[in-house]
Amino acid sequence: MATEVLVPTLGESITEATLGEWLKQPGDPVKLDEPIASLETDKVSVEVPSPVAGVMGQHAVKVGDTVAVGAMIATVDAGGGAPAQAAAPQPAVTQAPAASAAAPAQPPAQPAPASGDSPAALSPSVRRAVLEHGVDPSTVTGTGRDGRITKEDVAAAAQAKPPTPTPTAAPASQAPSTAPTSGGRKEERVKMTRLRQTIAKRLKEAQNTAAMLTTFNDVDMTAVIEARAKYKDLFEKKHGVRLGFMGFFVKAATMALKDIPSVNASIEGDEIVYHDYADISVAVSAPNGLVVPVIRDAQDLSVAGIEKTIGDFGRRAKEGTLKMDEMKGGTFTISNGGVFGSLMSTPIINPPQSAVLGLHRIEDRPVVVNGQVVVRPMMYLALSYDHRLIDGREAVTFLVALKNAIEDPTRILIDL
What we know:
By secondary structure, the chain is of the alpha+beta class. It has helices at 81-87, 89-93, 99-102, 111-114, 124-133, 151-160, 165-168, 174-181, 194-209, 222-239, 246-259, 303-319, 392-407, 410-414; strands spanning 2-6, 16-22, 29-30, 35-40, 45-49, 54-59, 66-68, 72-78, 212-220, 266-268, 271-273, 280-282, 284-286, 289-291, 294-295, 332-336, 355-359, 363-369, 372-386. It is built from 14 helices and 19 strands. The strands form five sheets. Strands 9, 12, 15, 16, 17, 18 and 19 form a seven-stranded mixed β-sheet that branches. A four-stranded antiparallel β-sheet has the order 1-8-6-3. It has a four-stranded antiparallel β-sheet with strand order 5-4-2-7, with no helix packed on it.
């Protein structure tokens, strides 16, 4: 008996989603509550579980189609999962004439690594990464949920891949000459995911609405680096999470926001809304793009509590299990482009917030200290803000307060 698979409730005010990828193909055995498809909404990816155990039936929609809440997207034939798995090995073990029967038993295990061109095997973003980097998916170890391959896995495999093309193409001109013979230059059109469309729309709206301005400063990271090196092992042993730099910056930011409340405020119509709490949005990299979960009441958390929350967000963003409610709200955003090697940037405000702090990579630079030129680990800070609400004096004061707290972490302990 076939059971219909329906699009589950996706959250408040969300009525539709885009089918991101099929995790199970027709004929595959499925377990009860095992994810069979991934849906992309405006904020996060949501997995659709199987309502029964059995065998995957027919897909009713294709990857990239828009589906409404409650719509039927596939069927599952109940009760057929165990026999299908048990019967498959038998033909493969028999003599050579059974090779034709054994052939269908292998493809379910091989479509994902066998070819990056199969939309059923890899998500569109991963397929594009495979084509861009020229990586064989069968050689990539997936670190995503249920061992699925992510864009980060493809990028890591591309960096570790030995430079095989150079030995084959002795002359430098040989590579371009092969392109015309194989049909010329190629293009691939991939539909934007719903998440990417939403990101593009909101960022453009922010530019069109806010009077954005960016102010820069730099900070000497010596004290924080020394504190981290001294206590990181004890910290991890006691709290079960690694001590990073974001804990210091989030805590320092909450203190500076309390001193400069306009940076933590927002504009609603002709009113300014001031918040006596600091809900800090932290930009986290996910397989399908950047997501921004919120650390609630960060002003009341310790550095350890902040690090635990960020670590949990990062893990679940990679798995695609962040919840809708965890993305909502936020009074101030911190984006750390330094983890990707960014030296300097002008981040865009996350509406309806009025400011965003951009962190960048740490690098040794010569600076003057007490009249002497010394080499110190320095980081550029960038505060983009809505000039309709925040004046330059307030923006600079905020950055200086943050700089002072990072360069002298004792200030964080004594709330100075």
